[in-house]
C-alpha cells in the first residue's frame, strides 16, 4: 500500500469533504506497515490450530479451524467429554481461549475468571474474582454479559462489567495491573472481549442506552497506561471525522485530522452514543483494526437531527496511534436502534478480476456489507433477510440506505411492521467464515417490530432510550435462522429455521461441520454443504455463547458455554420481561421458559477414542 504524507492526507480529506472519492467511505490517512513488537508472537500463535488463542480464534474473525478429526462423517458420535459449572446463572456470551495446556474463560457478572489445566480439567487451576461495583448491573442495557478473555505476553486480559480492565498473570491469576475505563455511575459498562495487538490491549465501552459517548481505548499491555482513546463523535464544530476525538494517552493531545462539518446539533454529541461493545479484528499487513460503533443516543430520532456521525459506523484505525484511516456509516440518523457493532470478518474477494482485501459485516439493519478494507469503498451490499423493509436498498451514488419514509420513526408516532426489529437480523452473535466453501455461516434473528419514539431528558446513569419497541416473529412465524450465505451475491445457500433467535455464535472446521447453539439449549453440528443437522445435544441451559475447538493430547475437542441470557432472553433473569434500560424482552421468552432455565455450564465435547482413531 502507499504511504500518504501530510499533503496527500489533506488532499484526501478535502476529497472526502467534496465527495470526490465518490461513493463510499472517507479515507483519512494511511499508516506504515506494522513495526516490530514484543508481542508479535500472537501473530504466530494464531496459526496453531491446536490452540484457540483469541476470542475470535484469529485476528481475521473467521472462527474457523483447520482441525478435522471431528468431521461430517463421525460427528454423530460426539459425546460430552467433561463439563464445569460456572457458578453463575446469567447469560454466557463469550468463549474460552486455549493456550497450550491451559484453558481460560470468564463468566458474566460476577466476572469470574477461570483457568483450567486441560491435563486435569476436573480441577480449577486458578479463579480470579474481581471486586464488584454494584452500580454496574443496573446500567447494563441487555443483561450483565461478558464476551470473554484475551491473551497476550503471559497475561490474561478481561473486561469487568463495572468498566475496569484487568491484566492477570496467566500462570497465577494475580492482578498485574488494572485500568479504569469508565464509570457505571455515568452509565458506562464493559461487556466485550479485549483484543491484544502488538503492545496494546484494545477495549470498547458500552452504554449507548444511557447516552454514553462511545470510545475505544488502547492500553499498554505492560504498564496499563492509556496509549490512545478514540471517540465516536465530538464537538459540533469538528464532528465529521476523528474530531478532536482521538487523543494521545500520554499527552492528552488530539491525534489525526479534523474537519468542520456539523452532524450534531449543539452539544448533543456529548450524549451521542456510538459505543463500541462489539468484536474487533486486525489486519497486520495494512496495520488496521476494524470495529463498529453502536446506536446514537437517544433511540428517538426526532431529538437528534442530522446524520449523527459517527454512530452506526464501520471504523478502520491504526492500532498504535488510534488514527482513523476510514469510516463508513451504515445507518445515518438511525431510527430503529440498529447498532453497527457486529464483527468485521476479514477476507479477500475477487472483484473486477482482482483479489481485493475486504471485510464482510452482517449489520443489525439487515444488510450484509462487503467493503474494501484498505479504503472503505463498498464492493457488495445486499439484504441478507428478504423481509428487511426499513430501506429498499442502497443508493449507489451516496452509498446510503434508501429509507422507506413509511418506516421512519419519529416522536409521538407508532410506526408498525418494521423489519428487522431493534435486535436486528443479527445482533452480537458472531458468524463464521469457511474458506473452503467461501460461505458465511450466520446465526440470525428473524423479528419485526413496532416502534414508538418519545422525548427523553438526559440524566447521567439513567436510561436515555426514548422509544417503546414491541417485537414479533418475522414472516413465517419463526424467530431465528442459521444460514449459509454468500455476501458477494446475496444468495442464501441453505437455512435452518429456529423457534427462537439464534443468539449464540458459529464455528466452522475443516471437518466440513458448522457448530452453533440455540436458545433452547441445543448444541448442534451441521453439515456445511447441506445444512443437515448431524448431531445435537441438549445442554443444561440455553446457548448464547460461541463454540471453539482445540486439540489436546492428539484429540480434538469442541467447547461451548451454556447459559441463557443476553437481550434475547433477559426477561428470564429479572422476571420483569424487560432489561435495566427498560427495553422490553417482548414476551419472547414467555415460552422459552418452557424449554430451559438459567444456569451456567462449560460444555466440552469430543469423539469416543475408538471413533477418533478410526477416522
Ligand atoms: O449501545 C450499547 O452500548 C449497547 C451495549 C450492549 C452490551 O453491552 O451488551 C448491547 C447493546 N447496546 C444493544 O443494542 C444490544 O442489542 C445488545 C444485545 C446484547 C446482548 O448481550 O445480548 N447486548 C447489547
Ligand atoms: Ca445499543
UniProtKB/TrEMBL annotation:
Disulfide bonds: 141-142
Protein name according to UniProt: Pyrrolo-quinoline quinone
Signal sequence residues: 1-32
GO molecular function, one term: calcium ion binding
Organism: Acidiphilium cryptum (strain JF-5)
Alphabetized SUPFAM superfamilies for the sequence: Quinoprotein alcohol dehydrogenase-like
InterPro entries found in the cross-reference section: PQQ_b-propeller_rpt, PQQ_MeOH/EtOH_DH, PQQ_rpt_dom, Quinoprotein_ADH-like_sf, Quinoprotein_DH_CS
GO annotations of cellular component type: membrane; outer membrane-bounded periplasmic space
Amino acid at each position: 500500500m502507499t504511504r500518504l504524507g501530510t499533503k496527500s492526507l489533506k488532499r484526501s480529506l478535502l476529497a472526502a469533504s467534496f465527495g470526490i472519492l465518490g461513493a463510499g467511505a472517507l479515507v483519512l490517512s494511511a499508516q506504515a506497515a506494522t513495526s516490530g513488537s514484543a508481542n508479535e508472537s500472537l501473530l504466530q500463535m494464531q496459526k496453531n490450530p491446536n490452540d484457540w488463542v483469541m476470542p475470535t480464534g484469529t485476528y481475521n474473525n473467521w472462527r474457523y479451524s483447520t482441525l478435522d478429526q471431528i468431521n461430517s462423517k463421525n460427528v454423530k458420535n460426539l459425546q460430552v467429554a467433561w463439563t464445569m459449572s460456572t457458578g453463575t446463572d446469567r447469560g454466557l456470551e463469550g468463549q474460552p481461549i486455549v493456550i497450550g495446556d491451559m484453558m481460560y474463560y470468564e463468566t458474566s457478572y460476577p466476572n469470574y475468571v477461570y483457568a483450567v489445566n486441560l491435563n486435569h480439567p476436573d480441577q480449577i487451576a486458578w479463579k480470579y474474582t474481581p471486586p464488584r461495583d454494584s452500580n454496574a448491573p443496573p446500567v447494563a442495557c441487555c443483561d450483565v454479559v461478558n464476551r470473554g478473555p484475551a491473551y497476550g505476553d503471559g497475561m490474561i486480559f478481561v473486561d469487568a462489567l463495572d468498566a475496569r480492565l484487568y491484566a492477570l498473570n496467566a500462570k497465577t491469576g494475580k492482578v498485574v495491573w488494572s485500568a479504569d475505563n469508565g464509570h457505571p455511575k455515568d452509565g458506562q459498562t464493559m461487556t466485550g472481549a479485549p483484543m491484544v495487538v502488538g503492545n496494546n490491549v484494545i477495549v470498547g465501552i458500552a452504554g449507548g442506552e444511557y447516552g454514553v459517548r462511545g470510545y475505544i481505548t488502547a492500553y499498554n499491555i505492560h504498564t496499563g497506561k492509556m496509549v490512545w482513546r478514540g471517540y465516536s463523535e465530538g464537538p459540533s464544530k469538528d464532528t465529521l471525522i476523528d474530531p478532536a476525538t482521538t487523543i494521545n494517552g500520554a499527552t492528552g493531545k488530539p491525534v489525526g485530522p479534523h474537519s468542520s462539518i456539523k452532524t450534531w446539533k449543539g452539544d448533543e454529541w456529548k450524549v451521542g452514543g456510538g459505543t463500541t461493545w462489539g468484536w474487533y479484528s486486525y489486519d497486520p499487513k495494512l496495520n488496521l483494526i476494524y470495529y463498529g460503533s453502536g446506536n446514537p443516543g437517544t433511540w428517538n430520532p426526532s431529538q437528534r437531527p442530522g446524520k449523527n456521525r459517527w454512530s452506526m459506523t464501520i471504523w478502520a484505525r491504526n492500532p498504535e496511534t488510534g488514527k482513523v484511516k476510514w469510516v463508513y456509516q451504515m445507518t445515518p440518523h438511525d431510527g430503529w436502534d440498529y447498532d453497527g457493532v457486529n464483527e468485521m470478518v476479514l477476507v479477500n474477494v475477487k472483484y473486477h478480476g482482482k483479489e481485493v482485501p475486504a471485510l464482510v459485516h452482517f449489520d443489525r439493519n439487515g444488510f450484509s456489507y462487503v467493503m474494501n478494507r484498505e479504503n472503505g469503498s463498498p464492493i457488495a451490499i445486499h439484504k441478507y433477510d428478504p423481509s428487511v423493509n426499513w430501506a429498499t436498498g442502497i443508493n449507489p451514488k451516496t452509498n446510503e440506505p434508501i429509507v422507506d419514509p413509511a418506516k421512519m420513526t419519529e416522536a409521538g408516532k407508532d410506526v408498525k411492521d418494521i423489519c428487522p426489529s431493534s435486535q436486528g437480523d443479527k445482533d452480537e452473535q458472531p458468524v463464521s467464515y469457511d474458506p473452503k466453501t467461501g460461505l458465511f455461516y450466520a446465526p440470525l434473528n428473524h423479528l419485526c417490530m413496532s416502534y414508538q419514539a418519545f422525548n427523553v431528558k438526559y440524566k447521567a446513569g439513567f436510561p436515555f432510550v426514548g422509544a417503546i419497541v414491541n417485537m414479533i416473529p418475522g414472516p413465517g412465524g419463526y424467530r431465528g435462522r442459521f444460514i449459509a450465505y454468500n455476501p458477494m451475491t446475496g444468495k442464501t445457500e441453505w437455512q435452518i429455521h429456529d423457534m427462537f433467535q439464534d443468539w449464540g455464535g458459529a464455528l466452522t472446521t475443516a471437518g466440513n461441520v458448522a457448530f452453533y447453539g440455540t436458545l433452547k439449549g441445543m448444541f448442534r453440528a451441521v453439515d456445511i454443504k447441506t445444512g443437515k443437522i448431524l448431531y445435537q445435544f441438549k445442554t443444561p441451559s440455553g446457548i448464547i455463547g460461541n463454540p471453539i475447538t482445540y486439540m489436546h493430547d492428539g484429540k480434538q475437542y469442541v467447547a461451548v458455554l451454556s447459559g441463557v441470557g443476553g437481550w434475547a432472553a433477559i426477561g428470564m433473569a429479572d422476571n420483569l420481561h424487560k432489561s435495566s434500560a427498560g427495553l422490553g424482552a417482548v414476551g419472547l421468552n414467555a415460552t422459552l421458559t418452557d424449554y430451559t432455565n438459567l444456569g451456567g455450564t462449560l460444555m466440552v465435547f469430543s469423539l469416543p477414542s475408538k471413533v477418533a482413531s478410526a477416522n
